[in-house]
Amino acid sequence: ATSAQDHTEMPKTRGKKGDKKEGDYSHLFQKTPKNFRIGQSIQPKRNLSRFVKWPKYIRIQRQKAILKQRLKVPPAIQEFANTIDKNQAMTLFKLLSKYRPENRKEKKERLAKIAEAQAKNEKADEKSKPKVLKFGLNHITTLVESRKARLVVIAHDVDPLELVLWLPALCRKMKVPFCIVKGKARLGALCHQKTCTAVALTAVDKQDERALSQFCASVESMYDEPVRAWGQPQYGIKARHKIRARQKELDKERAKRFA
Q1: Is residue 226 within 8 Å of 169, Cβ to Cβ?
Q2: What residues of the chain score a pLDDT lower than 70?
Q3: In terms of Cα–Cα distance, which of 185, 202, 64, 214 is closest to 144?
Q4: In degrees rounded to 5, what are phi and psi of residue 251?
């Protein structure tokens, strides 16, 4: 009888696939994994600058910059790393921008006025010599040697540096105030050129006399005496780690000895 009852029991109902348990929200946030195999999902953007074959001139530029850091720099070259600070540079360029030389258009207009006056047999307005910035290395050298220059501004990134390497020494000998600023392109913009190695001021207006003398006094202490110290090399990250590890070992040995 018991065996008959066992056979007559109803089979257990299994839950259907579609049935969801109460509180199951997995159907709302279904995973959609990306497949990055050929012809599938688009690869994410990566920074590939490490793998770019840069043009030769860029590679040489970068190698040169690193080589300069690794070498011990002589005092004459090290001096060009000693530039004026941001506030001093702002004051200086504000003053120099007032004495920008005339550009081609202005020169053309001036010469046209003179030609018109001559054609009418009139006397052209004779103005006094304009007070403008002087540029060009040969011109500046002449002005410094004749002690006509009141302030010489030299760019720190002239290439090759030998072009202006001797100029600070000449200025000191002739007792002409000078300073070194960042960027030959900034000096070039003042003179309507792409770049400029150095500029000089020979004269300024009466209202700018005080500003010029104050600026010369502020930079005089920086460049009064030639730099005697050599520029120390900056090691790379690997070399720094090696030096640090070596130093640790030496410290350990020293501690053992004295202990």
Answers
A1: yes
A2: 1-24, 124-128
A3: 202
A4: -65, -40
